[in-house]
Amino acid sequence: MGLSDRVVVVTGGANGIGRAVAEVAVRDGAQVTIVDVDAAAGEATAVDLGVSFRRLDITDGAAVAVVFGEIVDAYGRIDVLINNAGRNAYFDPVEMTEQDWDDVFALDLKASWLCAKHALPSMLAQRRGSIVNISSLHSRLTTAGMFPYAAAKSGLIGLTRSLALEVADRGVRVNAVSPGYTRTAVMQDFLDRSPDPDVERRILDVHPLGRIADPLEIAEVVCFLASDAASFVTAAEWRVDGGLGARFA
User: Fold this and answer.
1) What phi and psi, each to the nearest 5 degrees, are found at residue 233?
2) For 151-181, how does the pLDDT look when each residue is reduced to its tens digit (9 = 90+)?
3) Where are the transmembrane segments (predicted)?
């Protein structure tokens, strides 16, 4: 799929979709570094998958600069960046504080720019590279009780398109993947918070494919977009949602 010997960085790579992306990228021949704030999970994933791990808070611009510089020093370049790390948000729009707002957007939007900022110099220098931002179906459809998650994920789609146009003439592609419901710890947290004991059945009932995605199914699409097999795809948003976004519920 065109990832052989590529140097790939995956944020939030210790769990869920990020871990699955690292697993598929390794299978496809990449040299993978995962970054995550969860040191224990990151170290365990590194051993399990045979990848490198660096603990990093990607909302800290100075720390991102240091760690990404270390990755370039170690491998000579960064070919692919997967901006996967993120969080859900469950705030009341009146009761939430400015700090709550800033914390959500720092991770779900600003951090993707910070990581791109420090991965791009290597890509631009070699006139080749790929960035894939993990957005969400919430960028187009959303639900009450998860404010302001949709705003941040919608912003990530705008960032994808804008950044793609800025760097296209220098050989770098930027795309987004918007997963629907996927079997991750983040989804389990959503289910656990729901007051509806039948919430999972209701979710399954409205899915055209009648099931929830495995993280590896999302990862296959992410790695395709990151690879040379998608060499003419940029500024695109690919929905991987089992058809949920195409129907009335």
Assistant:
1) -110, 120
2) 999 999 999 999 999 999 999 999 999 999 9
3) none
Looking up residue 235, the CATH number of its domain turns out to be 3.40.50.720
- Is 90 a residue of the active site? no
* Non-local CB neighbours of 67 within 8 Å, separated by 6+ positions: 35, 54, 56
Query: Whole-model pTM?
Result: 0.95
75, 90, 149, 181: the active-site residue: 149
9-56 pLDDT per residue, tens: 999 999 999 999 999 999 999 999 999 999 999 999 999 999 999 999
In a domain, 188, yes or no: no
Q: 71 lies in which domain range?
A: 7-182+214-241
